[in-house]
Design brief:
This protein is α+β, with helices and mostly antiparallel strands. It folds into three domains: 171 residues, FAD/NAD(P)-binding domain, CATH 3.50.50.60; 148 residues, 2-Layer Sandwich (D-Amino Acid Oxidase, Chain A, domain 2), CATH 3.30.9; 75 residues, Arc Repressor Mutant, subunit A, CATH 1.10.10.1100. 30% of the residues lie in helices and 25% in strands. The protein is built from 13 helices and 25 strands. Strands 5, 6, 7, 14, 15, 16, 17, 18 and 19 form a nine-stranded mixed beta sheet that branches. Strands 1, 2, 9, 10, 11, 12, 22 and 23 form an eight-stranded mixed beta sheet that branches. Helix 1 packs across helix 9 and helix 11 crosses helix 12. The longest helix has 20 residues. The two termini are 30 Å apart. Bound molecules: flavin-adenine dinucleotide.
Length: 469
């Protein structure tokens, strides 16, 4: 049996950032992840927005964590060498219902002290974003909203946690958790662990993990979401993140991403029961139809023929549950705010929806501090290093910098992915950092993420993997 101070279940954003913050203390940390890599759950399939906080009830935990995280985000991305664009955002409406919602959000934001928000006057929004359909009746600008690539952030948190001592075990699905011997015994199919404390960051399965030791209290009832990604030719359609507030309460989000693409989505549709069990993030035609209809209404000139990929996601909606005659029933009220469920050394992060990406480091730190305190550790390590260096991307270099790079490392002169401008050296570096399949290399370098979606570069990438692996 392997012994460890704190065991983290799940290597999404929350598991990786909790691990990163746990190793600020002199604590042994093991992270168990059922998949072969980090960021394979909700963390890979979201809108990538760093929110300013005006969307949340002033005084709520969500609000406090979001505001703090937004303020810290530039420093976090500098430490972890992750591209971050503070594009600002515009929330726009075209009628009285939307006007009321936008006004309320503005007033809530003002009351909560959110900086850099203002209601735009007359046709200012239309001048800022000429691609939007004319006739905007209200618009809320937020200066500090931004966007990040969620998997770059998650990979960076993982690499930084690992370089400071956290041990990640992949292909390790937790199948049992028991309270035993002043702690917990945790079983996977091939190994047993004993931990003094457990952090349950298992995303869509976090309710099931908790119920391995506790009685039912909160369960997840997911809804599905679909996204469309357009090629870089469309990335300049809008300059800001656009939140469209529809008259029926539904809306469209447009994100000009850090890589220059345009992300469209998400819609909301029900998840069939069997999908919940499978944690299956399948897309659905009806979702895309809904997104296309909204695009036609909000950005009528947008060429959806520029689509290069789609993806699906699931929202982990938490509801209180209760038992009646031995059957667990869902109450009709969903849990709006977030909290860390603390139960004698078991810390569960259940139903962490938007803005979980925004505050992943802040919530990870809070969770780590609670786990450290539970096992009696208060002192921070002097040798913890918050800095991680990413792979230098050829596409970010000027011609001069690129020439210098090629002189030092000729692999920077060999282009493998012409859509995304990814070189052989970047692929080799990703492999040396642990990427061992197409998906893992793609996510670390961007190779195969462009217009051709890997049809031209996949073979050459796999040849490098065979030679290096
Ligand atoms: C549609 C959508 C859009 C969103 N957009 C935004 C946004 O724009 N901005 C923002 O701030 N937030 C956003 N969020 C929220 C954010 O994406 C989540 O809060 C965050 O990704 C949650 O991360 P996680 O680590 O809890 O979950 P996950 O990423 O799902 O990680 C959980 C991990 O646990 C693993 N696991 C599960 N069961 C086991 C087991 N038994 N054993 C071992 N491992 C296990 C899974 O494989 C997975 O890797 C969005 C969420 C959704 C659903």
């Amino acid at each position: 049996m392997r012994k460890v101070d704190v065991l983290v279940i799940g290597a999404g954003l929350l598991g990786c950032f909790t691990a990163r913050n746990l190793v600020r203390y002199d604590i042994d940390v093991i992270v168990l992840e059922q998949h072969d890599d980090v960021c394979r759950g909700i963390s890979k399939a979201n809108t990538g927005i760093i929110y300013s906080g005006y969307d949340h009830k002033p005084g709520s935990e969500k609000y406090k964590l979001c505001v703090q995280a937004n303020e810290e985000f530039d420093q976090l991305c500098r430490d972890l060498d992750v591209p971050f664009k503070r594009t600002g955002s515009l929330m726009v409406g075209y009628g009285p219902a939307a006007d009321r919602v936008i006004k309320k959000k503005f007033n809530d934001g003002l009351q909560g002290g959110i900086k850099g928000i203002r209601l735009l006057e007359d046709s200012e929004a239309e001048r800022m974003e000429p691609a939007l359909r004319p006739g905007i009746t209200s618009a809320l600008y937020s200066e500090s909203t931004g966007t990040v690539d969620p998997w770059e952030l998650c990979i960076a948190a993982y690499e930084n946690a690992a370089s400071n001592g956290a041990v990640f075990v992949f292909g390790a699905k937790v199948i049992s958790v028991k309270r035993e011997n002043n702690g917990f015994t945790i079983g996977t199919e091939s190994e047993t662990y004993h931990a003094s404390a457990v952090v349950n960051a298992a995303g869509l399965s976090s309710d099931k993990i908790r119920e391995m030791t506790e009685s039912p209290d909160v369960r997840l009832y997911p809804t599905s979401a679909d996204y469309i990604v357009l090629d870089k030719d469309s990335g300049q359609t809008v300059q800001h993140i656009i939140f469209h507030e529809g008259e029926d309460g539904k809306g469209l989000t447009l994100v000009p991403t850090v890589d220059g693409n345009l992300l469209i989505g998400p819609d909301t549709r029900p998840s069939p029961e069997e999908e919940i069990i499978a944690e299956d993030m399948r897309t659905a035609a009806e979702g895309f139809d809904a997104l296309r209809d909204m695009c036609e209404m909000v950005v009528p000139g947008l060429d959806l023929g520029r689509q290069i990929r789609t993806f699906g996601s699931m929202r982990p909606n938490p509801f209180k549950v209760y038992e009646e005659n031995g059957v667990v029933l869902r109450s009709d009220k969903s849990i709006k705010d977030i909290r860390i469920m603390e139960e004698d050394g078991l810390l569960s992060l259940i139903g962490i929806k938007t803005p979980g990406l925004t505050f992943s480091n802040v919530l990870g730190r809070l969770t780590a501090d609670k786990a450290a305190s539970y096992i009696g550790k208060a002192e921070l390590r002097a040798d913890f290093d918050p800095v991680r260096k990413g792979i230098i991307r050829a596409r970010d270099l000027t011609l001069g910098e690129r020439a210098d790079m090629i002189a030092k490392d000729p692999g920077y002169g060999e282009i493998i992915c012409s859509c995304m401008d990814v070189t052989a050296s970047e692929i080799r570096q990703a492999i040396r950092r642990g990427a061992d399949d197409f998906e893992a290399i793609r996510r670390r370098t961007g190779c195969g993420m462009g217009k051709c979606q890997g049809s031209r570069c996949r073979k050459r990438m796999m040849d490098i993997l065979r030679r290096e692996g």
